Amino acid sequence: MACHPGRIAIEMQAEDPATGPRHEAPAQPNVGARVRTTVLQAALAGLMVSGMRASLVVLRAMSGGAAISETRWRAAAQAWVDAALPAMGTALLLSLLARKHRALGILAFAATVALGYLLATYQLPAGESVYTPTRGSARGDQVHLAALVVAALAGVLVCLRPRSWLAAIGTIGVATLVLLGTWSTWSRPDPARWSDRPNLILISLDTVRADHLGCYGYPLDTSPHLDAFAADAMRFDRAYTSDIWTLTSHMSMLTGLPPNVHRVDKDRGLSYKAATLPLMLRGEGYSTYAVVDNCAWLHQDYGFNRGFDIYRPVEEPAPAKISQALQLMDEADGAPFFLFLHFYDAHSDWRALPYESEPEDQELLAGWYQGSWQGCDEERAECASTLLQSMNVRGEVLPDLEARFVASLYDAGIRTLDRDLQVLWDGLERRGLLENSVVVITADHGEEFFEYGKSLHTLHQQGTVQVPLIVRTPNTVGGQVTDALTSQLDIAPTLMGLLGKTMPDTQWGHDLAEVLDGSAGIDREWVASGKRGIVQSLRGPRWGIMRRDGEWWADGPDGLIPLAEAPPEAQDLVPLAKSVQESLRTAGDAYPAGPGVGLSDKQKADLAGFGYTGDD
Asked: Omega into 541 within 30° of 0, i.e. cis?
C-alpha cells in the first residue's frame, strides 16, 4: 500500500491531424479498486503478524519434544483468530494514515513494526506468555528476531503502492520463509523419561536454614509438608553453601563454580566464558524455565537468564510462583524440562516485624511472646530488616527474649511457605510428573539470631552456611540419610550426571549420582564458603573454622570456641584455608570479568528494606 498520495494524474498529449495538438482530460483513478486493495493488503499484513503469534504455540511444543497434538493445533488456531482481527484493523488504520503524507507514511511504518512485534510476541495485550522465550537465550533471540522481521515485512506491505502486487507477493513469501526457517531449527527431542531424560526441578528456599526444618531434627512443627516429601527422598545432613549472599550463592548453584571463580559481584555479572546449568541442558534438548522472586540480586543483568527459554521474575509470594510454575510444566506437555523455582518468602522483610507469616502460623509458633517489642526503633525510625542490619553495624544485640521472638517469627514464615509448597507437591502428583522427574530442594544460605552477636546472615557460622539438600528421584528409597560432606556446587554436576553428561568445569563440584543410588560415597575433605575472594569458613569431616572479627574461630559440635581451645583437627584447617583461597584465586583469574551491572535507585531502596547495605 502506498505510503503517500496515490497516482498523480498525468496530462496526456496527442496530436489531431486536423486541429493540431490537443489535451486529454486527466484519467480518473478507480477509487473502488484502491479501497479493495488497501483492505486486502491490510488484511494480509494482519494475518502475517497473527500467524507469527500462533506459530509460537506450535514452536513451544516442538522445542520440548512433545507431539503436536490436536489440542495444541487448536490453541494455535485460537491464537491466530484472537489476534487476526485486531491486527488487521490496526493495519488498515495505519494504511489509511500512510496515504495522507509521506511523513505520516514513515510514522505508520514505524507503528506497524512496533505494534506487530509486540502483538506477535504476546506483549500485547500486556503480560508475558509461556509461548514466548526470554530474550538473551539462543531460542529467545531467534524468535524475537523472527517476530521483528515479520512485523517489518507487514509494515512494508501496509506501505506498498496499491498495484505493486509482485512486491506484495514477494513480501508475503519472505515472511513465510522466515517462519519456516524458525520452525526448522527447533528440533523435537525425545519425551521425558526417568532412565535417561528426566525432568529436572531445582527449588531454592531462600534463607531457610536446615536445622529449623523438622526433617533435620527441629523440635517445632515448622515444615510438616516438606518433612513428608523428604520421607520419600534422600536427605543430605551436611550440605553447605559457598556464600551467604543470595546473588553469589545462586550463581554458584547454577554454574557449579565457587564465587571466587565465577566472580559475580554487586556491580559485575557472569563472565561470558562461564557455562550455566540451563545453558547446558538446553543444548541437550530441554526446555528451560525459571520462576524467581523479583529480587534485584536475581536480576537477569547478572546473567541468571543465560540458557533459560523463559526467565520470569514474580513479585507475588509463593502461591503465584507455584501457579505459574505449574502452567509452565503443563506447556512442556510431556517433553523434558528444567525448572528453577525460587522462593523468597522466608527471607527477612521490610515492614514492622522482620519476618512475615499467616496469622495462624504466627500464633502457633510466636504467640508465646507477650512483650512490647514490635520490630521497630521509633527513635531511629527503623523497623524489621533495616533495624536488624543497623544493629549489626552498631554492634548491638536484642535481649534474649526478643531474639527468641525473632527466631519464632522466622519459624512461622517457614511454616507458611511449607503450606504453600504442598500445592506444588499436589500439582506434581496430579500430573504424574514425579514418575519421571528429579526434584532437588535446597537454600542459598541460612539465618542467624544473635547466637554470636549478629542477625540476618552476617557471619559464616553453622546456622548460615549449612543448608538443606533434599533430592528425590523416581527410584529413591524413602527416608535415606547421608552424612557425606556436600556442597551446593554439587547440584549442577549431579543433574548433568543424571543425563550422562558433565559440566565444563568439574573440579569444584561432585556428581552425587552414586550417592543417590547407594553404590558409593564421595571423597571430599573440605567445603569452603567465602566472600569477595576471601575464604570465610572451611568445613572438614567433624570440625570447621570461621572468621570472626578478623580472627579464626573453631566451629564444632557445640558451637564456636576460640581456635586455641580447639583440637588439632580444627587448627589444621587454617593453613588449608589459605591454600584453598590461593587455588580459588588462581582459578578465578582464568575467567574474564563479566559485564558491569548498575542497580537502579528503586532496586537499591528495595534491597535496603531487606537489610542489605549494598555491600552484601
From this structure: no
